[in-house]
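Lab notebook, design round three. We kept the backbone fixed and only want residue identities now. Task for the bench partner: fill in a sequence for the structure below.
Input structure tokens:
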């Protein structure tokens, strides 16, 4: 069977270090290949920077993703940007919305050429580190904890919470078995929402 081709557009490389194994686990035993579209550190002169502003700039300036041969394009933004003074005034809630739906619509609006069918928006609440905290501690309601990264366990000989790809690749490992356990997944509603959207997209192929 042909591997699924997945593009990732995210705030930072540590977010990608979490998303890749999550997606691989969700889609197993299907083989997958990944392309990190944003942030792009392979370019000598990247056209965008990191963070949510980098994601916005990439989506504004890369309408070619609509014609991409990718099977799935994952667009990641942390939920805590909804209170950013540049973002919050632009969010337009509707009566039936949950509190992240206006942000999801706003992010879709960054795709100036329209939203491709292959696109799935993922908005970890409050940050990607919330998922890691759930898997590496006994804390409950982690999606309600601001700045969850400060509570992550220290790894490595330095005893520091190094924000690096190797550290995050280790921290995500205890999360992966939860993806197959509905009761545990329900404790992370935004992760559950993401897994549902990914599976729905893959079923449609």
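Proposed sequence:
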């Amino acid at each position: 069977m042909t591997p699924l081709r997945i593009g990732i557009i995210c705030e930072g490389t540590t977010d990608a270090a979490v998303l890749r194994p999550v997606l691989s686990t969700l889609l197993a035993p299907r083989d997958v290949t990944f392309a990190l579209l944003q942030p792009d550190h392979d370019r000598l002169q990247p056209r965008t920077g990191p963070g949510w502003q980098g994601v916005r700039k990439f989506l504004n300036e890369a309408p070619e993703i609509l014609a991409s041969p990718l099977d799935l394009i994952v667009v990641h933004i942390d939920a805590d940007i909804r209170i950013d003074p540049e973002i919050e005034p632009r969010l337009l809630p509707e009566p039936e919305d949950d509190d992240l739906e206006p942000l999801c619509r706003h992010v879709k609006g960054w795709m100036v050429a329209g939203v491709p069918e292959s696109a799935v928006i993922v908005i970890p609440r409050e940050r990607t580190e919330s998922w890691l905290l759930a898997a590496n501690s006994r804390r409950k309601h982690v999606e309600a904890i601001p700045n969850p990264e400060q509570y992550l366990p220290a790894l490595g000989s330095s005893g520091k919470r190094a924000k690096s790809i190797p550290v995050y690749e280790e921290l995500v490992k205890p999360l992966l078995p939860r993806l197959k356990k509905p009761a545990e997944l329900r404790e992370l509603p935004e992760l559950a929402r993401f897994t549902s959207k990914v599976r729905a997209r893959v079923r449609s192929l």
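Keep this in mind before ordering anything: Strands lie at 4-9, 32-38, 72-76, 119-122.
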